[in-house]
Amino acid sequence: MHSAVWPSSDCQAFPTPVRNHADAMIDYHALILRTVAGLDPNTEETRRAVYERTRTALANHLHALDPPLSETERMHQRLALEEAFRRVEAEVEKAAQSGRPFPEFAHALFVAGSLRKLADRLDHTSYGARISLGHDGAFNLALPTTPADEATTTVPFFEHRLSEIRRNAEALDVLAAPMAQQPGWHGLAHAARLTRNLLNAPATEVAREVAHLWILSTCLAAHIERSEDARASHVGLTGPLDPILLQVLREFVFVAGPWVRRFPSARALDDAAREHDCAVDAVEPAIEFFRRTREAALVRDDDARAVWIALDAGRGVSVPAAKARSWAVATVGNIAVAMVKELATGPDRAEGEPAADAAAPAGATRPIESVVLDSERELLSVLARLSDDDGAALRDAFAALRQTTGDAGQATDR
After folding, report:
1. Are the C-beta atoms of 342 and 368 separated by less than 8 Å?
2. Which tens digit of pLDDT belongs to each residue from 244-295?
């Protein structure tokens, strides 16, 4: 966990104000915030003493400038400093109302400032799961659904075809279960088991979960090609599937794939996955970032399973693997976007202003921050694809974050 303690500054040394204050301004708020965050004790009396010393220091600094600023420019600098005092006092009050120590609150403000520009350049992709932060501190993954999906269950012969697919899924699950311990095939075993469980639900529930069925059936199709590649290459730890299992897998995919696409939500996912190509080399960074996210308990097990299975299937080069990869990497990217936006919102949001998706519970941003700070390399891969600046804003954000956490570490060593 990164420290949230800030060093004290005496605010005696000010940068020289630029001649045209409309073009730039000293960041008085950052100077005062760092100083107040380092006060011990932090009381109204000690803060007022800081403010008075800072006013005197600024007056001396402006007086010593040669050539001097105009009276209008000097007044603008003094008003900016007073506004910084007002903001910090408001932040001290918000920290007290939230029950958070002010050094921790100030640290979150600096993190938010570091990420705000990046957050403004990012948005969720439409071809991955939609992400929102739940009140328990874990991210919710929402897959598409529409009333038209349930209407599909009323067409003639639907129940007959569903019964056939259920039998195929049961046979596949029985044969695939032992593969859970085989290198390269655990995703197949888990996909078969989850598919069987979903299909055994009532038809209306099957319709509500058809997006999950699309993900799983796509991943199962990718494993057919993986077996063929293993048979042809004879390289690596993964051997080809047993011929009987492979035949049952083929039969299931042959029947279930077109059937799943009859549902509007699944068809939309399939079309989007075909349209948005994703390179194979994006999979491993997405896996590493998602691993940290899962270890931090920021996603729930039920949601994580589908993402893990799709990431694993996406390592291949077949068309089904490419579709699974497109959805999985986009979903991981949406999780990263939600994390950045949550941290960039900061703890000082105005009264009534919502967070990026849902107000995070107290302390929920700490594991989010930890995952983001530990994932610079992975985020450069995952998020650069979603930005229009080739990752420049992301690199700038991490440079600012390193300064923020570096200052905190120096304070801890004192």
Report:
1. yes
2. 999 999 999 999 999 999 999 999 999 999 999 899 999 999 999 999 999 9
Does residue 40 come out as left (phi exceeding 0), alpha (psi in the -120 to 50 range) or beta?
Answer: beta
The answer to whether 292 and 298 have CB atoms below 8 angstroms apart is: no
Cα angle 103, 108, 113; round to 5: 125
CA distance 84 to 29: 4
* Residue 41 to residues 35, 95, 156, Cα–Cα distance (Å): 12, 15, 75
404 has pLDDT over 70: yes
- Provide the terminal-to-terminal Cα distance of the chain, rounded to the nearest Å: 18
Q: What is the pLDDT of residues 282-310, one digit of tens each?
A: 999 999 999 999 999 999 998 999 999 99
Nearest-CA neighbor of 32 among 74, 80, 72, 76? 80
* Dihedral sign of CA atoms 279, 285, 291, 293 in order: negative
C-alpha closest to that of 179 among 140, 138, 220? 220
**DSSP-derived secondary structure letter, 133:** E
**262 touches 148 (CB < 8 A):** no
